[in-house]
Amino acid sequence: MPGVDPASVEAMVAQVAAAGGGLTGVFAVSADAVDPEMTTEVDTATATLMTQLGDSRIDPAAATYTRLGQLLGVAIATPDKGGQRSNISSDTIRTSLGAAGLLTSDPGARLAPLVLVLLPQGEDTDAEGADDPDETDDALAASAIYTGLTTGLRDNAAGVVVLGDTASGADGLLADLRADALVTSALATVDGGDTVIGQVTAMLAVISALDGSVGAYGASGSDGAVPIS
């Protein structure tokens, strides 16, 4: 997601390899895609693309960001645990979202059963900022957008893990997402992505997600430090 430290992406790419996994690609969602002021443009682009595709995996009644998440799911993921080659629908979505400035894709990347979503860096909050109405509104808008994106993405993947840093898990976007039963019932979440322990925990959660496991893991997680099976 936009705002993610590139070093965090590199670290998780390395963790996939260390865990013996195969990385199909790294996909970058743009800042415009999650900007509340761009909602109308995102809605128009995704509605047009949905109509062109006529794909039953995209719910015509879905809200804007859930629809975008579903499109992302068809573009990069598959419920098939063995993965699949990209197809006409996935290639069309990647091209169209790229042209709309919403997504950067790895050309020819296979469809993956498991998706790891890296959240933007959290920010330390203080007492003064905590009562700022504008900051509260921004946090609510971000939570709604990321809830739609991640749960929509989950619709066409075998499993999705959302990784945030320590600050995000303590009192930020990840904490807000964890407060939503829609998210916690469908996704695994991990905090501490800025630490090696958090990165390893994220990979354990990804492995568990292949069997449909969900939970909130890490220092601020309600289900313990790491997934246990």
Extract low-pLDDT stretches.
125-129
Computed Rg: 17 Å
Order of helices and strands: HEHHHEEHHEHHHEHE
Oligomeric grouping of the chains: single chain
**How many domains is the backbone divided into?**
1
Structural class: alpha/beta
| CA(first)-CA(last) distance | 29 Å
The gist of it:
With 229 residues, the chain is α/β, with parallel strands linked by helices.
Characterization of the model:
This protein has ten helices and six strands; from the N terminus they run H-E-H-H-H-E-E-H-H-E-H-H-H-E-H-E. The two termini are 29 Å apart. The chain has helices at residues 6-18, 39-53, 64-76, 88-99, 127-130, 133-154, 166-171, 173-178, 181-184, 196-209, and strands at residues 28-29, 103-104, 114-118, 159-163, 188-190, 215-217. The protein has one domain (6-217). The protein is α/β, with parallel strands linked by helices and 229 residues long. Helix 2 (39-53) packs across helix 3 (64-76), helix 2 (39-53) packs antiparallel against helix 4 and helix 3 crosses helix 6 (133-154).
